[in-house]
Amino acid sequence: MAQLIECVPNFSEGRDQSVLDAISDAVRSVDGVTLLDVDPGKATNRTVFTFVGEPLPVIEAAVRAARVGAERIDMSQHSGEHPRFGGMDVCPLVPISGITMDETVMHAHALAKRLGDEVGLSIYCYENAALKPDRRNLAIVREGEYEAIPSRIGTDEWKPDFGPAEFQPRTGATAVGARDFLVAYNVNLNTTSTRRANAIAFDVREKGRIKREGHPATGTVVKDDQGNPVWSPGLLKACKGIGWFIEEYGVAQISMNLTDLTVTPVHKAFDACDERATARGIRVTGSEIVGLVPLDVLLSAGRHYLTKQGRSLGVTDAELIKIAVRTLGLDELSPFDPKTRVIEYAIQDSTKKRLVDMTLEALVHETASESPAPGGGSIAAAAGAMGAALGTMVANLSSHKPGWDDRWEEFSKVAVRGKKCHDRFLDLVDEDTEAFNKIMAAWRADAAVRDEAIEAATKYAIEVPLQVMETAREAMGVCEAMAERGMEASLSDAAVGGLCLDTAARGAALNVAINAKDLKDEAAKSRYLDKANELENEVRTRCEALQSAVRAKL
Question: Is pTM, for the whole model, over 0.85?
Fold first, then answer.
């Protein structure tokens, strides 16, 4: 899985469209980066840009955008309602998928250094990227705003982490951070009362409400020994919330910012609002997510609600998303299209043709054509996907069998394993063809690097079928488990699944062998062939045992 990060730089310009267009063009100039959103505000004189991609291209795009900002924005002439202290005011990196926060912090520091060295910005690192504990909070870093920089920047306490340690009148200062993904999330109510929506918001938000004696709204405020009001915390950590009325839709909403989805995911916030609304005689009718969200937000919600129903979780991502959208009511106020609202889907290259997106008939015809790819390697992976899917099907069917309700979780775990395998096989269908294309490209390389390129491409073309074989070994366990304890009516399906996996492993072994003969690295060749032989023999032996066991039961 590719590592994806999001970059959300805020520039202190929201009125001059030519400047915003120039910054947008700088971001788009980097291959592998997708500009998702540009959100300008005239009153704040500030624009939020959102773009996503793998870490190194994203960092390059941020540096190019910052360079344009430094050339086109003069902070000495800036005014606006939003707190600010620099032309590129803040530039947080957000992990989206395939990457940890620690890795994101490392990239934030690399970005901060480049902005200081190459663009000449004075950089302070904040949130998870903070190099000093007292700089974690952005409000403290930006205290006094642009006007306070001259008196602060020359002190030891506020010397920048990177870049010039003297006041830059034109660019001011920039805060670079790494933070969790923040979801702006609104829950719809069947009331027009802002007061009642606020009451529910106070029930659920982390801050809660001021504690009172007697009536919760009008009673005497409880104070501590210092005379400060005492607060009663709400149900949800990492949640900020208020109630408001949306005239456009004629409904009140609980408007929340979920600042750490590992602590309070969207579905947990929805359930808490539903619980507290019901207790107050109000119904939750739906909800809305503002902007784009990572895929896992919806997958996690889908799994959560299937678990509550006692249903198998080994279903497709599309089914999980459908369950999430329906349960959360994400399409109540406007259509919710995952293709445009899920980050991973929104950045997919729609022009790139994938074998797995073809119909079965089209794939057969493409394979039969005069084109050398797809070939045996891709078809071996496709056979493996079918085998793993059959094992997953038996697990899903078994989880629904009447009288086996107490075993749904047992079968669900097997189905999840199977889904992981058939998803991996599907990736390998196209990866095998990509491996072939890499070999062809290596042969066309300049003579000075051609041999090295061919050797590297050949190793890649061997490692892909080895992954097919390893996945076949894992998926065989799914078919074995279902042949042993799944629905008796589906025994033959588990057996056919095993045969498909055996075919995948044998076909992939042939792919390893034909590519290994061209390797110059004899030690690597020996390792690859030994591993392929080991995997092929194991999968074949287990498949034969599976067929014997099934036939004995039949």
Answer: no
